[in-house]
Amino acid sequence: MKVRVGFGYDVHRLIEGRELWLGGVRVDHEKGLEGHSDADVLIHAICDALLGAANLRDIGYHFPDTKAEYENVASVTLLRKTIHLLNEQGYRLGNIDATVCAERPRLNPFIPAMKERLAETMGVDLSAISIKATTSEAMGFVGREEGMAAYVVALIYQ
Question: CATH number for the domain including 77?
Answer without folding.
Answer: 3.30.1330.50
